[in-house]
Each structure stands twice: as C-alpha cells, then as structure tokens.
UniProtKB/TrEMBL annotation:
This is DnrO protein. Keywords: Signal. It comes from Thauera humireducens. Residues 1-29 form the signal peptide.
Length: 165
C-alpha cells in the first residue's frame, strides 16, 4: 500500500486537526465538512442519539470488523509489527472514507469529529508513533471509542466489542 494514498493523507490531515485523546478536539474547515473553528465534544441530540448516514455506518462497521478480527491475537501477544501497521492503515482508510463521504447535520458532524479525533489518537499508537506506549493500548482505545460512537449515534444492528480490559 502506498504510504501517501489520498485516503491516508485525508485521514492523517483529519487526525492532525482533531486533537487529544481525552481532551476535546479542535475542528477546522475540511473538504466536505465545513465549520467555524470550535470545540467538538461528545453530546447527545437533546437526549437522543444522532442520526447516521450510509457512509458513516459503512466506515464504522469496517473499523469494528477489523478490530474484532485483530483483538484475539492482540490480547494473546500474537500480533506483530506488520499486522499492527496493516490495522492502522485499514482504520485510516476507513476514517478517510467517512470524512470524504459522510453527510450529517452540523451538530452531529461536530460530535463525529470528536470520535474521529479519538480514533486518530488510537491509530497513532497502533502504528507505533507514540514511543513508550504499547500498540495494544491503541487497539483498546479505538475499541472504546467505538463504544462512544454507539452511545452517541443511532446505528441499527451495531454490535459492540469485548476488549477484555
């Protein structure tokens, strides 16, 4: 896989714009998601989950499925550097797909940006860009972020992951 594919560059750009793991992410204008500069936070839509579109559901299901396949070997210590890199690239590609194709109302989009920021931080760890942090921690962070996604977005048929942590 070319390290500089458009999806990878778009995903990396989105991660760079979106900030810290547990801190709110700063959101700036992006190709298909136009915003004023403000802080994205996880919140519900007046007590209800935000609606999703097909692109968001497809991308998030792909990320979930990649993690579901990886988790047993990650937890047993059988996941090697190459597999972590492949997983990170797969997640980056799906985030790029979501950023490029997802069309949500602005308030829901703001919440999604907080989710994407957390996923980006997890991918950085999975890819080995955070020295001194075990890559497994990035996998767990992304899995927990998917729980945040499920708690804030209406996604029929969504199945959570068991992280064993």
């Amino acid at each position: 896989m070319n390290a500089y594919t458009p999806a990878r560059l778009l995903a990396i750009g989105a991660f760079a714009l979106l900030g810290g793991v547990f801190a709110p992410a700063t959101v700036m204008a992006a190709d298909t998601h136009q915003h004023d500069t403000h802080t994205a936070v996880l919140k519900l839509n007046q007590g209800a989950k935000w609606q999703t579109d097909e692109a968001l559901r497809t991308g998030m299901e792909s990320i979930r499925n990649a993690l579901a396949q990886a988790l047993p070997d990650v937890h047993s210590g059988k996941f090697d550097t190459t597999r972590y890199q492949t997983l990170a690239q797969s997640i980056e590609a799906q985030v790029g797909y979501v950023v490029q194709n997802c069309k949500l109302q602005p308030e829901a989009d703001d919440v999604l940006h907080a989710i994407i920021g957390e996923i980006g931080q997890g991918v950085d760890v999975i890819a080995g860009h955070k020295p001194g942090t075990e890559r497994e921690q990035g996998v767990v962070l992304v899995a927990r972020t998917l729980d945040d996604y499920a708690a804030h977005f209406e996604h029929p048929g969504w199945k959570g992951l068991k992280t064993e942590h």
